[in-house]
Specification:
This protein is α/β, with parallel strands linked by helices. It contains 14 helices and 22 strands.
């Protein structure tokens, strides 16, 4: 528990430093090419964590420790449910709503928002925004989870009320990102979700907004042209290839959603905001099934980003529900405490992808599968992306593959193997930038022996 004490101390130091939330979390906007996000003109690589039940499970000390840990691991976005269900409450601040009514937020004027027992749920959320900003974290806030829509508690009458309340209260938080929807197919309640989006946008035109759909779906399928939707979000889901029997099944190929979203007009950025979580059973509620591991978490991240996504969201089973052993789990048989889950290897490795992508010219990057002459299906895929003077190719199995040279600048290129587990780069050599060349990754070919090949113009300044 030493890390908990250290994290809280770090949070206090940040508060004492007086660092501006606006400085640490400047406003986000869509880049000029409609493909990425930026802040103050600089690239913003979204590295998110699914802290879905943070408001319903953690007190302030625990929240501070969680933020400090994820900040140290390179995360910059936390996805949070504002209202999970009608009985949503914080263990210290109490219920969010009066009698579970979306039109009656439980607000207690005149209390002291700094004192336990006196601050209400909404005071606590104010504090959460401020502490997240102090750690350089944006809050991707889902106002209303899908349970409300399922029982028609979110409808044409209630959506404007809760939408206006949330937008008026949080529109001045610099680190806010709106996530309309709540793990549901929008076509089941299209009017309610659209009204919620329009209401929030009318009150708060300055923060980005998207829609979080159910598994194996994208916001683009219904809301791509909605004026309130600034970027697309998809949930590639938790099923394996063998379990996916849905219409137009795409299995574990999350990159397909990225490609589809980026093919639409007008151009809007896209991201996989809910891939398979580390340590969660294949198919979620199938207890005897194996669990997704660190290698799977890496694969989903590298596949989607190299296909053109502007970032990626990671999830861990115990962390997303903040599970404490000895208490009842929300779902999916977590085995670790949420504190242990924060150190799951895949979650600790996510920042290596972010670091590599940001180390090269960001806004010029495009997906380019023509770089690879022998990419295969499923796990045999070799994902590829490039800028003007660099290229990156990722293999999940570490199998040898052929690269079509001459796709980036320079008569000669420097080549290196980048390890997604450690972030270490091992030079291979310098080669002529012509023809087709075979590259053989280290180790034996096997799922999880993943490597990224990085090519740079030998005369360039890329590091």
């Amino acid at each position: 528990m030493r890390w908990l004490i250290a994290a809280v101390a770090a949070g206090c130091a940040l508060a004492a430093s007086g660092a501006s939330a606006q400085d640490r979390t400047p406003p986000l906007k869509v880049s000029a090419n409609g493909r990425y996000l930026e802040s103050n003109g600089k690239p913003f690589f979204w590295l998110g964590d699914t802290g879905w039940l943070l408001l319903g499970k953690l007190n302030r000390e625990e929240t501070e420790a969680y933020f400090a840990k994820r900040e140290a691991q390179g995360y910059n976005v936390i996805q949070v449910m504002m209202l999970h269900g009608p009985k949503m409450e914080n263990p210290v601040a109490g219920p969010a709503l009066v009698d579970g009514d979306l039109t009656r937020p439980r607000v207690t004027p005149g209390n002291d928002p700094s004192k336990p027992g006196e601050y209400d749920y909404w005071d606590h959320l104010d504090w959460v925004f401020d502490r997240a900003a102090a750690h350089g974290l944006y809050i991707a806030l889902v106002p209303v989870w899908g349970d409300f829509a399922d029982f028609r508690l979110l409808n044409a009458d209630t959506a404007p009320v809760i939408g206006r309340f949330a937008a008026e209260r949080y529109k001045n938080k610099p680190n806010l990102i709106w996530v309309n929807g709540g793990d549901r197919y929008p076509e089941l309640s299209p009017l309610a979700w659209d009204i919620l989006g329009k209401t929030i946008r009318a009150v708060d035109p300055n923060h980005l907004m998207t829609y979080h759909p159910a598994g194996r779906a994208s916001s683009s399928w219904m809301f791509h042209d909605a004026p309130w939707l600034d970027f697309n979000m998809y949930q590639s889901g938790h099923q394996s290839y063998a379990q996916d029997h849905q219409l137009n099944a795409r299995g574990e190929d999350n990159w397909v959603y990225t490609t589809d979203d980026l093919s639409r007009s007008p151009a809007k950025p896209t991201i996989d905001a809910e891939p398979s979580y580390e340590n969660i059973p294949h198919g979620l509620d199938r207890a005897p099934e194996p669990r997704w591991g660190a290698a799977d978490a890496r694969r989903y991240a590298w596949w989607s980003v190299l296909a053109g996504a502007f970032g990626h969201t990671y999830g861990e089973n115990s962390v997303m529900q903040f599970f404490t052993p000895g208490t009842k789990a929300n779902a999916y048989w977590p085995k670790l405490s949420w504190q242990e889950g924060l150190d799951a290897p895949g979650g600790s490795q996510m920042h290596h992808l972010k670091d590599l992508i940001l180390s090269r010219p960001f806004f010029e990057r495009v997906p380019d599968q023509s770089l690879i002459t022998d990419s295969g299906p499923r796990y045999e895929r070799v994902a590829a992306t490039r800028g003007k003077s660099y290229a990156i190719a990722y293999t999940y199995t570490g199998r040898p593959f052929h690269v079509r040279m001459g796709k980036i600048s320079g008569t000669r290129v420097r080549a290196a193997w980048f390890d997604p587990r450690t972030g270490a780069s091992t030079p291979i050599g310098t080669f002529a930038n012509t023809g087709v060349r075979l590259f053989t990754p280290p180790g034996k070919t096997a799922p999880g022996n993943d490597w990224a090949l990085v090519l740079d113009d030998a005369k360039g300044n890329n590091q």
